[in-house]
Write a structure and sequence with these properties.
Blueprint (H helix, E strand, L loop, with lengths): L53 E4 L8 E4 L10 E7 H8 L16 H11 L11 E8 L3 H4 L4 E9 L1 H9 L4 E7 H11 L8
Length: 200
């Protein structure tokens, strides 16, 4: 895979990405000031270190330019896999979560929460944060297409790491890894999988 200097993120070899359906993944949550927008070209490169640590590059994030993440389930028989997701696509699906636990955009967080997340994710610490852990499902889309069963949309629920995921998207990560049960991985790739800068 390409290994150019402008590549924005990394993935593991088993986290293959499928071409998703054509959808509008612009943010559905307004904010008083915009999140940093990815400004790059080229394709992601895959280069996890030997211990399986992922490094996610951030764009226009003054505090630090990258974040390290590790797997939640590291045992071979865990039946969970890593999927490299498009940040905007994943968060759009997460906004559809029917539960009451859907966080607002980062600019609406209390300043102490933003500071705490930033310190938690800062690289160079002994403890490496775990990647977000999600559940994925689909439902009928609004409108006629969904009514007749011809159109569906993805729904993401966070088991852990929603603050991390939303902060990464705000900080300019175009894509990042998440962990999901193997039975849901294919659908997650279809609706949210990273396929390049043009996807965002």
């Amino acid at each position: 895979m390409p290994t150019g200097p402008l590549a924005p993120c990394f993935s593991l070899t088993h986290a293959s990405v499928l071409l998703p359906d054509t959808m509008d993944f612009s943010s559905s949550t307004s904010a008083p000031f915009p999140a940093p927008a990815p400004m790059f070209s080229g394709s992601p490169r895959t280069a996890p270190d030997e211990s399986g640590i992922w490094t996610v590059e951030l764009v226009d994030h003054e505090a630090f330019s990258s974040v390290q993440l590790k797997r939640v389930f590291s045992l071979p028989d865990s039946r969970h896999v890593v999927v490299l997701v498009d940040a905007k696509a994943l968060l759009r699906c997460a906004d559809r979560d029917p539960t009451d636990y859907v966080l607002p955009a980062v600019p609406y967080w209390p300043s102490g929460k933003v500071k705490g997340l930033r310190e938690f994710l800062e690289p160079g610490q002994t403890r490496i944060p775990e990647m977000p852990y999600v559940l994925f499902s689909t439902r009928r889309s609004p409108g006629l297409g969904g009514l007749v069963g011809l159109s569906r949309e993805g729904v993401v629920s966070f088991r852990n790491g929603q603050h991390r995921a939303r902060y990464l998207g705000f900080a300019g990560a175009s894509c990042f890894p998440v962990e999901v049960h193997e039975t849901e991985a294919e659908s997650l790739r279809k609706y949210c999988g990273w396929v390049g800068a043009e996807r965002s």
